[in-house]
Amino acid sequence: MKAMIGKKAPHIDATAVVNGNQIVEHFSLDQYVGNKYVVLFFYPLDFTFVCPTELHAFQEKLAEFEKRNVAVVGCSVDSEFSHFAWLQTDKNKGGIHGVTFPIISDLSKTISENYGVLASDYDYDDDGNAISTGTAVAYRGLFLIDKEGNIRHYVINDLPLGRNVDEVLRMVDALQHFEEFGEVCPANWSKGKDAMEASGKGVADYLSKH
């Protein structure tokens, strides 16, 4: 896949379930441009095993994202009706009842394809063209989008590998620190730690202190 850093996030116009109980047509990330940062994350399927742990983890930290002016948005290749049913299912039964952030339906798989996270088995025809076989789902892709609608960070996990939501918050903090102070964030940086000027002197000063 081509690197997407610094590029405009691919446009989305799809049906989503918001607030855990409302189906909204023509949901778009455009509503956040100029107003909010966005964490857009993809997961494979509703009613599975690792996926509910991730959605609950994002919900548990939703207030932290909101304090940072970040909208959290989920997406999978399920229908909005599947999302709705899963949202009505109790946590102790594998459901995601209580999740309030928007969940987009990518039934056509177009969004997953545009973001480069569509997972599928492939075969090849006589002309060497890749032909998708089996049921395609989304890898665990995550995209941090700034207020101008540009992708500033993304990571894609294979299907068995759940994400660390605290790391997502750390990346939000790093981006916002850079935007506010113009300082770059070194390895293992977290909010409240020293950053450094983007210059040879800045690097030398930082290294001399650590």
UniProtKB/TrEMBL annotation:
Q: Which CDD domains match?
A: PRX_Typ2cys (cd03015)
Question: Which PROSITE patterns does the record cross-reference, listed alphabetically?
Answer: THIOREDOXIN_2
Keyword annotations of the record? Cytoplasm, Disulfide bond, Oxidoreductase, Peroxidase, Redox-active center
Cellular compartment(s):
Cytoplasm
Q: Which GO terms describe its biological process?
A: cell redox homeostasis; cellular response to stress; hydrogen peroxide catabolic process; response to oxidative stress
Q: Cross-referenced InterPro entries, in alphabetical order?
A: AhpC/TSA, Peroxiredoxin, Peroxiredoxin_AhpC-typ, Peroxiredoxin_C, Thioredoxin-like_sf, Thioredoxin_domain
| Residues the record marks as active site | C51
MF terms from GO for this chain are:
thioredoxin peroxidase activity
Q: Name one Pfam family in it.
A: 1-cysPrx_C
Query: According to its UniProt record, where is this protein mainly located?
Result: cytoplasm
The segment(s) forming the Thioredoxin domain are 3-177
Entry's SUPFAM superfamilies? Answer: Thioredoxin-like
Cellular component GO terms, alphabetical: cytosol
Q: So what family is this one in?
A: Belongs to the peroxiredoxin family. AhpC/Prx1 subfamily.
Q: What does this protein do?
A: Thiol-specific peroxidase that catalyzes the reduction of hydrogen peroxide and organic hydroperoxides to water and alcohols, respectively. Plays a role in cell protection against oxidative stress by detoxifying peroxides.
What PANTHER family would the database entry show?
THIOREDOXIN PEROXIDASE, THIOREDOXIN-DEPENDENT PEROXIDE REDUCTASE, MITOCHONDRIAL
- The protein in question is named Thioredoxin peroxidase
